[in-house]
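Pilot study result, target chain (340 residues):
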Amino acid sequence: MKRKALVIFFVSMVLLATLVFLYSRSISSQDHIIRIGYNLESFNSGPVMVAYEADIFNKHNLKVELVLLKSGREVQQALATGRIDIGSAGATNFFIPISQGAPVKIIAPSTVAPTQVFVRPDGEVKKFSDLVGKSIASRPGESSNLALGYALKKEGISFNDLEFIDIDKNVRPIALIRNKIVDAAVVGKYEEKIYLDYGAIPLEEWSTKGYVNKSFPRTVIAVNSNFMNKNKDSVSFFIDAFIESQEFIKDNPDEAAGIIAKHLEQGSDGAIKFSTEDIKDSWKELKYVLWHDPNDFVEISKIEEEIGDIESALSLNEIFDLSFEEELKSSQNELYGSTD
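Predicted structure:
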C-alpha cells in the first residue's frame, strides 16, 4: 500500500512539474507584449505582416503590438531607445545605432534584392562619370546605398564627388522627373515600375556593366538586446513564427500577397495602395530569405564607413547575434534549398 502511494505521489509530482514548466513557458511569452516596428510604406516587412494577419504569432503564443513607423530611420531610433522590442528595416539602418553603442543586434536576414539607378531621359546622365557633381535622392542608412557604394568603388569614384539629398521615397519620382530637384534616384529594383511609369530610365552603365544583377541584403530583423536578455523565449518564439510566415508566403503566394496589400492600405488609412499582382510582381526581384552569410554584413559595414554613415567598420560580434543561426540556416535550406 505504501509503495502504491509512493508511486502515485511520484507520478503526481512529475505531472505537477510538467504543468509548472509548460505554464511558466507560456507566461514567459504572454506576460509581455512584443512591440514590433517596421516601415509602413514598405512591403519588405511582408513576413511580419503575414505572421500577424494570418494569426501565426498567436499560434506561437505571442502577443504582438505592431508599431507602424514612417521609415527605416524611425525603426532604428525606436529600437535603440527601447520603444519597440524588435524592428524590421534595412540592415544599414541598424549599423548607425550599433556604432554608437546602442543595445541593438541583427538576429536574422529577411530580404535580398538588386538595386536600380534611375535618371531623366534627357541624356545628360548615362555614365558613372556623369554622376560626378550631380545630386542623388537617397537617405543615410538606406540599403540601396550599399549597391551604389560598391559600384562607385569599382568605378574609382568617391561618394564625396556626389551630392546626396534626403527625400522621402514616395516623392522621389516626382523630385526626379517633374521638379528636377535631383539628377538620379537609387532604389530597389522591385520598385522600378513606379519610376518607369513616371518616365524615368535606368542609368545606362549601371545596366551594361551588370550592377543591376547583383543582389545585396536589404531588410533584416533586429532586436533590442536588453529585451532579448530578459525575454529569450519570446524572441525564440518570434523566430519560429517568422519561419512559418515565410513558409506560408511560399506555399500561398496569392493569399499572402493579398494580405500584405490589404495590410498596407489599412495601416496607411488608404494612402498606400498596392494590388495583389503588384506585390507578386515585386517578388520577381525581392526575395525573402531566412539566412545569409553574416560575414557579408561586416563587408557592408566597411562600405558604410566609406560612405560616412558610421565612423569605423563593425565586427561580426557587434552586428549580429548568432543565437538562431542553426535554426534559420536549416529552415533556409529546407524552404529555399540554399543558404545563399
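One observation from the pilot: Confidence is low (pLDDT under 50) at residues 5-31. A full batch analysis is planned for the follow-on phase.
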